[in-house]
Design brief:
single chain; alpha+beta; Pdz3 Domain; 2 domains; 6-stranded antiparallel sheet; about 20% strand
Length: about 425
């Protein structure tokens, strides 16, 4: 009798925990309010900037996992959980004081109605820049929490938005949604997932990355990776742009998580609304997010997935669209201290912005400069630059020829 009573009490307690501990989201909430709610939570100063390996990162991971559970996603992490754990290692990790700390990706699955053994992966990194340091643009300032609202609470909120949508509207193919960590320290979480994933690369239709979609200005959206599969141009041609002005960039490499999947032979796309003056600064706050613009971007992405979902996997062919050499933003080796303009398609590579206190700033680089030569070697594109940079070491002096407006000038960089 006591056993039954105790069991009944325990069951009642569990039901109360589920009811009060995993509260449903507000009813009749608009899409913009939904996105705002998640971005404001993730970028609140209580999250501490969500640096990989921190307690704040773990807090954000639990938040994402709770939503995956609420939406009914199947756990797709380690040992029947939503979490895939990995150890942080590498040069940037060491600089940030997180060597050998534990980090985790958060993965949930929505099984396909017709082809559960085939996958469309949608990903976004949820880690931020913590209190700055080496991954901040504010090198001459005191440490300060970087809310990381656009980079990348925006993409994380977008991932949750899509998780909710596809849980209510299952696709023909399985949808695997992954929130990556360690992106800011060199794509560590996505690289770990891509190298360790149980499914084969040829069972994955594509990987679509959402990174920095919160600052849509004049409708300008860039989609990277459009040359990584034979189907992308025709597919994107069939989707109404509505309020968007879309720039397509074919390359599959870059400084975000899609590059990890491109490297293992999976077609990729990366949705991106552009670099801005708050990039990697303590001023990247939720009040500057364009929530209406985010909804436009995510509706376009939903249409892309829907069109892809109607195809057979045999119709999708991976293509090498870029030089397979390492990209400039990997977190290892020496650094010039610039952010490239990934939408630039002319000769050389164009500087989007210059980091404070870095070799480029000391040498006199300016925003908009186009690098044409390094030590008299012609630089055709970003990948030429990345390869050439790898030939130099700390202490080397390198002569850069850059185009600045109508003038070609030489800048001497001391690494």
């Amino acid at each position: 009798m006591n056993y039954r009573i105790n069991q009944t009490l325990l069951s009642s307690a569990l039901l109360l925990f589920v009811f009060f501990g995993c509260k449903p989201e507000k009813l009749e909430i608009t899409s913009e309010e939904y996105l705002q709610e998640h971005i404001e939570w993730l970028s609140d100063i209580e999250r501490g900037g969500r640096l990989a390996g921190s307690i704040h990162e773990a807090d954000a991971a639990n938040y994402i996992a709770d939503r995956f559970l609420q939406y009914g996603l199947e756990p797709a992490g380690d040992q029947g959980t939503y979490f895939q754990q990995f150890i942080l290692t590498g040069p940037m990790v060491q600089i940030m004081g997180k060597e050998n700390y534990l980090s985790r990706n958060v993965a949930g699955l929505i099984e396909g109605r017709k082809h559960p053994e085939r996958y469309i992966i949608i990903g976004a990194h949820y880690d931020g820049q913590g209190k700055g340091g080496a991954i901040s643009m504010e090198h001459n300032s005191e440490p300060a929490i970087h809310p990381s609202a656009d980079d990348n609470a925006s993409g994380t909120a977008g991932l949750l938005y899509l998780a909710r949508h596809f849980s209510e509207n299952p696709a023909n193919h399985s949808i695997l949604l992954i929130a990556f960590s360690g992106e800011e320290m060199g794509l560590l979480g996505s690289r770990h997932f891509a190298e360790e994933m149980e499914m084969t690369a040829d069972s994955v239709m594509a990987m679509i990355n959402i990174d920095m979609i919160g600052r849509l200005t004049e409708g300008e959206l860039t989609i990277f990776g459009t040359g990584t599969a034979n189907i992308w141009d025709d597919l994107l041609d069939s989707i109404p742009d509505d309020m968007l002005t879309i720039t397509r960039t074919p390359g599959g490499m870059g400084s975000s998580d899609h590059a990890s999947f491109y490297e293992v032979g999976i077609p990729v796309l990366h949705y991106f609304t552009g670099i801005h003056e708050d990039y990697h600064r303590s001023t990247d706050t939720a009040d500057k997010i364009n929530f209406t613009g985010m909804e436009w971007v995510l509706e376009h992405l939903k249409n892309t997935v829907a069109h892809l979902d109607e195809m057979d996997i045999s119709d999708v062919e991976f293509q090498e669209s870029t030089d397979p050499r390492s990209t400039v933003m990997r977190g290892d080796g020496i650094r010039l201290g610039v952010i490239p303009d990934y939408t630039y398609s002319g000769p050389g590579f164009k500087v989007e912005s210059v980091r404070d206190g870095q070799p480029a700033e000391r040498a006199g680089f300016e925003e908009g400069d186009i690098v044409l030569e390094m030590n008299s070697d012609t630089i055709q594109d970003l990948f030429d630059y990345a390869q050439k940079l790898g030939e130099f070491s700390e202490g080397d002096e390198v002569t850069f020829k850059v185009q600045r407006g109508d003038e070609e000038i030489e800048l001497i960089v001391e690494f």
